[in-house]
Amino acid sequence: xxxxxxxxxxxxxxxxxxxxxxxxxxxxxxxxxxxxxxxxxxxxxxxxxxxxxxxxxxxxxxxxxxxxxxxxxxxxxxxxxxxxxxxxxxxxxxxxxxxxxxxxxxxxxxxxxxxxxxxxxxxxxxxxxxxxxxxxxxxxxxxxxxxxxxxxxxxxxxxxxxxxxxxxxxxxxxxxxxxxxxxxxxxxxxxxxxxxxxxxxxxxxxxxxxxxxxxxxxxxxxxxxxxxxxxxxxxxxxxxxxxxxxxxxxxxxxxxxxxxxxxxxxxxxxxxxxxxxxxxxxxxxxxxxxxxxxxxxxxxxxxxxxxxxxxxxxxxxxxxxxxxxxxxxxxxxxxxxxxxxxxxxxxxxxxxxxxxxxxxxxxxxxxxxxxxxxxxxxxxxxxxxxxxxxxxxxxxxxxxxxxxxxxxxxxxxxxxxxxxxxxxxxxxxxxxxxxxxxxxxxxxxxxxxxxxxxxxxxxxxxxxxxxxxxxxxxxxxxxxxxxxxxxxxxxxxxxxxxxxxxxxxxxxxxxxxxxxxxxxxxxxxxxxxxxxxxxxxxxxxxxxxxxxxxxxxxxxxxxxxxxxxxxxxxxxxxxxxxxxxxxxxxxxx
Length: 589
Ligand code: 9MR
Fold this sequence. Notes:
This protein has helices at residues 3-32, 138-150, 159-162, 209-225, 227-232, 246-260, 298-316, 321-343, 366-380, 388-391, 405-413, 421-444, 458-476, 482-492, 517-521, 571-587, and strands at 42-43, 49-50, 55-56, 63-66, 73-77, 83-87, 93-95, 100-106, 114-120, 125-126, 130-132, 176-178, 192-193, 207-208, 270-274, 292-296. The chain contains 16 helices and 16 strands. The chain has 2 domains: 7-132, Immunoglobulin-like; 138-500 and 568-586, Glycosyltransferase (Alpha/alpha barrel). The chain starts with a helix and ends with a helix. The longest helix has 30 residues, at 3-32. With 589 residues, it is an alpha+beta fold. Residues 201-202, 204, 358-360, 456-457, 568, 570 line the site of ligand 9MR.
């Protein structure tokens, strides 16, 4: 399908969805209005009522946002049409990030499982519907992990596991050239290596160690924090029938690729495996430009070392002999990569002149050194490596591909080592204080979120903030974190200034046009499901000629294929999404 016809299809779908949404809203609202005298019903197409469009666990805090002033609001049971709750909104508050004012509509006391809407004006205007129930996050948690399977390189996505998104294998990467920037005595320029497997990074078809590191680590952390949930969790992937949990199987697909990115000669790790330039919007099997490994770097080697050391720790606790064995390989690889970084402490990656794909260029690696040393120290029980003094030097902000300090602190805070008790206690103190600050921010925020700064991939910051609170909850068992975590879920699933549910395939106001090559080229109208769109920001305002985005960061988003700065998807965004949704799904109540 050409790009033009794809756009037309998207447009048609958008119009269709709008009509459907109107019809649904009329239906729900008119059934809601049953038994109420003469209420005419107007669907809330203007986003006057912002709700989490997927749903809530029965005992969770449930807050919608209203963009209109009203004395009361109702919660209507869609099946019976009855008003089950009438409440009074909180004060109207202006948010400088969205440029508008909202008030809260708290209906937490509604706990009976069912399908509901929040309605105003004698139920003449109703929100998108949502569910209350113990299983509300099951499907979306599965989809958010399944997205990694759908983004696997070097593997056919079959109908059995990929449904309508089945596609031939792309990028086998069995022949990859050593780029001049990566040449060494044992592997000169043009030398061929095999580096198969792994996930495509994002909407492009390249594979980057720095970003793979944090994404794989986040899934490993999930396995560490929620082992029981992982044991029973299945998302229907080819490996689902083996004796390894699916989350672990999924991350193994990428981890095994990462291992191939190490030069076994000197232990250094290539920064990325890539085409020379971004390919056009073709399917993976049609995008067959030559592939190169480019330049070893300090950041890639340290991220690799940290992730491999973490993997060895998680695998050591596994019941599978195969994983225990792999853990030893990972630990050896980690030590070699760390040693390489120690001898090459300032090899900062920069794209060579003939390469123009993503850079993931990080000029500050103190945090990566801290993270790698911490993971190795924890994995080897080597207290001398755990950098006590460096701990206090780390910045207090969420993990991201270019900031690993918080990943080290998270790992330490969950560490079990009586001899390192003081350092672990210090890390826990940092996590709890950070989480408290995030909670305070969400309590004071008109939109009830901790996010107050919109970077590229802002939605992933929301999910990463939730990870801090979830780990704080794990450490302290203090329920005070739960409302704020729910606020993060609500934000991502529709209670935000754009009113979009940001996870593809879910919600009523759906993201349809992600900047994702297979979704743009496959001829299937719906995008690949389970992906988190990058989200609003004002960093690049001109990626879509003809589309003028809001100057307010929280609204500066375009559901358009061209909007690589707001509507791309990426593995380091889906990993915290899965962490958050999987955690919520594990709570059940
Ligand atoms: O997520 C990255 C963001 O923080 C950077 O500002 C941006 C520009 O360098 O790049 C983002 O990462 C992209 C990567 O370079 C290539 N694959 C797609 C990634 C998501 O947009």
